[in-house]
Amino acid sequence: MECPSKASLALTGLAVAFLALAMAFHLEIWGRYEPPPALPRVDPSFTNTSTVRTSLAELKRTGGDTSEFACNACHEVGDHARKLRLDEKGSVILPDAHSELVMRHGRSNRNDNCFNCHDEANREMLRTRDGRMLKLEESTMLCASCHGPTYRDWESGIHGRTSGFWKRDLGPIVRKDCADCHDPHAPAFPSVKTAPGPHGLHQKQEKGKFHG
Amino acid sequence: MDRRSFLRTSAVVAAGIAAIAAGLAPLRDLKNFESVEEFLQKHYKELTPEEMKQALERISREVERQYGLRPHVRDLKPMDGVEFAYALNLTRCIGCRKCVHACVAENNQSRNPEIQYIRVLKMPNGTLDMEKGDHNYATESVPEKGFFYMPVQCHQCHNPPCVKVCPVEATWQESDGITVIDYDWCIGCRYCEAACPYWARRFNFTEPSIPRDQVNPNMAYLGNRPRHQGVMEKCHFCIQRTREGKYPACLEVCPTGARKFGNVLDPNSEISQILKNKRVFVLKEEVGTLPRFFYYFDV
Amino acid sequence: MIKNYFRFLLRCARIALVGDWRYHLWLGWLAVICLLGLNAWCKQLVHGLIITGMSDQVSWGVYIANFTFLVGVAAAAVMLVIPVYVYKNKELHDLVIFGELLAVSAIIMCLLFVTVDLGRPDRFWHMIPVIGKFNFPGSMLSWDVIVLNGYLILNLHICGYLLYTQYQGRAPSKWFYIPFVFVGIVWAVSIHTVTAFLYVGLGGRPFWNSAIVGPRFLASAFTAGPALIILALQIIRRTTDYHVTDRALLTLRSIVQVSMLVNVFLLLNEVFKEFYTGDLHASSARYLFLGLHGHHALVPWIWTAIAFNLISMTLLLLPLSRSLRWLDLACVLAIVGIWIEKGMGLVVPGFVPTPLGELVEYTPTLNETLICLGIWAFGLMCYTIFLRMSVPILQGKLSKANETPGEINRVCPAIQSRTATST
């Protein structure tokens, strides 16, 4: 009689186990799915295609405010400059009217002499070393007159952003001028804000743990 | 069998059936049932133009249902005489990660969980050992002195290991060099993800979520149309833009112009000039993948 | 003839439903675990693989780990076949069937593990040649699909044929099984080599891209597989009145002995290669054995596995293990050690660090574990039912001779007194 009673016990046990399992499944006692926590939206400034600054050429193209560049509103044409005041390190001391500028052009500020670029007689004109006069919005050619290799790369589209259409016959290419990225007075490319880094799929979470 | 054991057996069987039914209950929540059409759809390369049109229609309908906008989905073919290549100037990259986020916005990648095709590594000067790279740098501003920044994305290799290993040929390389994925054919085995030496491929571990207002409606079948749970995806050189002659989104947003892209078969393109004149190199050259993605340091 | 075959199948199915209370309890318990796994898999189908611990960085986990281990177990069935058919060892003749039935169960488990790992299991038909697109011979996965399914069919044929002829009470025709047996020997080696090549063929993963992976797979398979068979045979001995000789067990022991020695030797080779030069490619090995940059989740696992393997090897070499108690211990240690080594010790470190040097660790979730347990339970259920059917046939208790129309054969195996263990 050992065989049947143990069998009946086993079967009863199994029936109970299955029912308990059914209840456990129904009540979702474990492994409830929690969707991953919502990540903060990325600031739209990290996806816009604007350059770090805007040149006069760009302002003129887009009809922006160019009042900052009306030098001759204060300076008379033909008015010869006073001698530049230099400090003990040889860096130029900016006049109060232009104190907002940062002068840091060249290593050891070698190129901080205003009149290396600006024409002494007409402040709205730029003058290259070999005497060519350029308008303020034509500053790229002035940069090129010293920065040869960079200009060579810029001309072929390698330096600076070349965007728009790579297939020239399907649409226009968009080039940026030097001053769209580089401040002529402190041309080193500025630091920019870091966009958020990656988030892993199963982040280490102290609260709101999710798992299967 | 006597009555008692019959009843007992029936009780066990009934309880068993109850347990099975309760066990299968989670399937109630199965949403996004693929249509019979999608289930039976053939491989991309075997679709007739008529079938492709129907597939595009189906995708448009699905996107409209899910996101409330009518997208412009098309199947763009590669152009003749075009082979793409990408170059990245490591002197100019400042590690701002704008490319990462522009890519996400352009290509309808899942925000939650996060999928990003581009990964930027912050490397200390003097080494290319990527184990020394920092993926999670969070300095207030970049660049940081003593480091250079190296973004990595799919290199669209000439000899792609991912294409070699896919058991169903869901991924292949097209004539313009882009390695594409047919999202409706992929079975999600993730062998390609294991095979890629550049960790360029991503898997949809769950149904992707994109905020409705951030969906890019200009879509391509092999490109940025929204993917579903269980399939692979990766950078495809913004196929919906580049096959229309435009630059990819990562390049458009780069503030320093560190990224260069174009037709390497055109000797006048920037990319050809770079490959000719700059000292370019590729990552993990010894693996023999022959990437189309070149890095270089500049003046 | 078809009618006879149907009747044979029907009687086999019927006998699977009858048994003593231990049989029903065992199957019931396995059914409970299966249902746990099924429920977990339903959740996975709905929510996706996010409910596992896998990520883009570690994109294969316990599913593929178990798959790899079980392919080895399936391949090891051949270790019974070789002594019987190549060396004409009559002792093990019937045991071949038990080994091959284990192989069939293992292959079923392998196929299930691959299915639960897929992101889109509904698209499995994409792999079928002609109606889908099958990347053969380029993709090693396509080779794996062919060899695994072929091996399944091969073993089902051999077992099925031998059992059916036994049932019919006639001698099997040599041509219907001997050639298949020899094909099976080569095929068994191939299934595991192809599985090894899945890993070896990836140049971007230096931890796997090594010539030693294939030989190691086979050595560990031929250790764990026969060890499992040793344990299974003793269970058969205890729960049925089928006579398994100690000689058979000791023959298997010598197979496990040699294979374990080879396995440990190959491990030493690997460790030397990884650590002696100190080059960058050893990062994954460093992560596994020593921990890397503060991450050391796998270190206790691998050292436990190595300890188990070494203790098992020592026991196997000592005459002590001729005693079944010690042999059983050695077998259990070997199986667990190799399961860890081949599973978590091979699959996961290949992903850590990623090809871009990122360190993300992997822990299986509860759901993932339940699915694994469910599949193991299903495999054990299959094997139990196969044994329940085949033992009476081999003993002659279930045969054409005692077919009676309309009556259910009730076989309640008496509990045998244990055969004295030889010391």
Instruction: Note the gap between the termini of chain C.
Output: 49 Å
Q: What profile does the largest beta sheet of chain A have?
A: 2 strands, antiparallel
Task: Output the radius of gyration of chain A.
Answer: 35 Å
CATH-defined fold name of chain C: Formate dehydrogenase/DMSO reductase fold
Number of discrete domains of chain C: 1
How many distinct helices of chain C? Answer: 13
Q: What's the count of strands of chain A?
A: 5
* β-strand amount of chain A: 5-15%
Major sheet of chain C: none
Q: How much helicity do the residues of chain C have? A: 55-70%
Strand pairing plus helix content of chain A: what structural class? alpha+beta
Q: Into which percentage range does the β-strand content of chain C fall?
A: under 5%
Q: Strands across the major sheet of chain A, in which order? A: 1-2
> Mind telling me the CATH class of chain C?
Mainly Alpha
Backbone CA Rg of chain C: 22 Å
Q: Largest protein interface?
A: A-B, 59 and 68 residues
Number of helical segments of chain A? 4
Can you name the CATH architecture of chain C? Up-down Bundle
Structural class of chain C: mainly alpha
Provide the fold topology.
The complex is a heterotrimer of chains A (212), B (299) and C (423).
Chain A: H1 2-27, H2 56-62, E1 125-127, E2 133-135, H3 139-146, H4 148-155, E3 162-164, E4 173-175, E5 192-193
Antiparallel strand pairs in A: 1-2, 3-4
Chain B: H1 3-24, H2 36-40, H3 49-67, E1 72-74, E2 84-89, H4 98-106, E3 119-124, E4 141-142, E5 147-152, H5 161-165, E6 171-173, E7 179-181, H6 191-195, E8 201-203, E9 218-220, E10 232-234, H7 239-242, H8 249-253, E11 259-263, H9 270-277, E12 280-281, E13 293-296
Chain C: H1 2-17, H2 21-47, H3 62-75, H4 78-86, H5 95-117, H6 140-168, H7 174-200, H8 213-239, H9 246-276, H10 283-289, H11 299-317, H12 324-342, H13 366-395
